[in-house]
Design a protein that fits this description.
Elements: E1 3-8, H1 13-23, E2 31-38, E3 41-48, H2 51-60, E4 67-73, E5 88-90, E6 93-101, H3 104-113, H4 124-136, H5 141-149, E7 154-162, E8 169-174, E9 179-182, E10 187-190, E11 202-205, E12 210-215, E13 218-223, E14 234-235, H6 251-257, H7 259-267, E15 271-272, E16 277-278, H8 287-291, E17 295-300, H9 302-319, E18 323-327, H10 328-331, E19 342-348, H11 354-365, E20 369-374, H12 380-384, E21 387-390
Parallel strand pairs: 17-18, 17-19, 19-20, 20-21
Antiparallel strand pairs: 1-4, 1-10, 2-3, 2-4, 5-6, 6-7, 7-8, 8-12, 9-10, 9-11, 11-14, 12-13, 15-16
Length: about 400
Amino acid sequence: MCGIVGYTGPRSCVEILVDGLRRLEYRGYDSAGVAIQAGGDIAIRKSQGKIARLTDLIARKPVAGTCGIGHTRWATHGRPSDENAHPHRVGRVAVIHNGIVENHRTIKERMIAKGRTFCSETDTEVISHLLDEYVSAGLPLEEAVRKAVAELRGSYAFLAVTDREPGTLVGVRLNCPMVVGMGEGEFFLASDLTAFLSHTRDVLFLEDGEMAIATPAGVRITDFSGKRRERPNQRIDWSPAMAEKGGYRHFMLKEIHEQPRAILDTLAGRMLPESGEVFFETLPLTGEQLSRLKKVTLVACGTSWHAAIVGKFMIEGMARIPVEVDLGSEYRYRDPVVEEGTLCVAISQSGETADTLAGMREAKGKGATTVSICNVVASTIARESDGVIYTHAGPEIGVASTKAFT
């Protein structure tokens, strides 16, 4: 999955963006780049390879500005190369993108027929061409984005800037994560809050079908039709130090050694050691309802799925209730039988795992009560489930998950 970060505010944004990209390195990438609004233009600096190559490029060709976007790419459409690296600038617009545009070939053919030239092999470039077409016709970036998303098919998140609107940053979410960081006169958009955790802990998670329009004066959230969306910010209780290696050689080792503390944090305020009683205030089930459960379905992906298998043994052994474990990617497509008295538990450290979210929605649509086990407060799965158990285990950066087991 690609890493996305954007900034608008009073400070020089180059260092902020590059630092944010470094904090997203754990996702894996083959190229990196930034686009900076600078002197009425958009300056692009991008390179195949590590972020160190990008910083060397910026050192050789300095750029300054207070609004910009940055990206680490993991190749899907097109080989790893400087040309395919993000951002993609077309005319007056620059775009970074995570996800897949399923109908990019159709849009590309239409654009080529209009005389437009493509410079990369990526699906992302069609977004840049669409936006440039609308912005060049006189539309504000916000409206251009709205018209573009009406034509796009797929699952994606992207950020866009234009040289016509200094300080304006527009972000879009559709089935790929995007979070807004709320600072004092400055705002961040990113695929993961660890990108800006050292600057602010006040966040707002975009929901599917939403846009964020950010300037130094504030952030507006709308749906794709332009209707305003209002909801409070969330305060994340992670400290910036939690996203550092803390003297360990790598994050994987750190997170293994954090497990005793993570487990204590998860149980804090929920368990009475003397009696063994456990309290979960955010569960939607009373004791009587729990006693009437007929089946538990655990839906998860990756490491969380392995944790679910362990959970199956524990639940069946202690509660004597039948448990089935499903991969989210399979559960959503197999037309599962959901009977009365079924509890679906979705397990996701990030709370944004797309297949797990889709599986939970499938179960909920068929009448199951849904509970999620998540680490990230106010994440999509946590918000959409009937109840949530937060693990409060701190940020997870190591690719091999530990905190799904916490």
